[in-house]
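Format notes (please read before filing issues)

Several people have asked whether sequences and structure tokens are stored in separate files. They are not. Every record keeps both together, in the order shown below: the sequence lines, then the token lines. Line labels are part of the format and must not be stripped during preprocessing.
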Amino acid sequence: MAGMNIESSLLTPKGRETRERIISAAAELIYERSVGDVSLDDIRHAVGVSKSQLYHYFNDKSDLLRAVIEYQRGGVLEFHRGVLESLSNIEELELWRDMVVAAQTSRECRGGCPLGSLVNELSELDGDARAQLADAFDGWEKLIADGLTRMIDSGALRPDASASNLALSVMASLQGGLLLAELARQSHPLEVALDTALAYVRSFAPGSWSA
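Then the structure lines:
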């Protein structure tokens, strides 16, 4: 049945809605379990569609995974964009930190980063998925870097601060903190990781000394 799926732009409104339901269900199942533990049959049973309907929208599991990556990318960036797109000072960065911790706490620290978990599962097995995930993380990191650049331009951070390096530090701390919080089933590791990253950012505030 592979090769029979059609472009989303050519679908009817009902077809697009069905396709989105399939992607949403697949994303949720994979996030809760893992890529390897979720079959196409699991997904179609969750949505209530036939095998022929599923293959109408997706060639195979790999094709569906591409859509899941984009779905998770959109959700993750939308969550962070609200604060990061207008980031202009340390206080707003702290607000973002609190938002991230609160979100993880509300889930009882069950499940880490929706994109990070896909990296762990797919980066060594699927080159196309790895490239797609790398692009998603680049966009996420750029969102942070752009906010830090505004902080430099406004004088909240010194001109010698590197927005790209600081963004990488924040991203690495976030991902590591999410992983350890999931393992410990408590938010403390995430709080410590983000606080350490923010302390590094603060070290570039005017009047602060940075090695």
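For reference, the curators noted about this record: The chain is about 70% helix and 0% strand. The first helix runs from residue 13 to 32.
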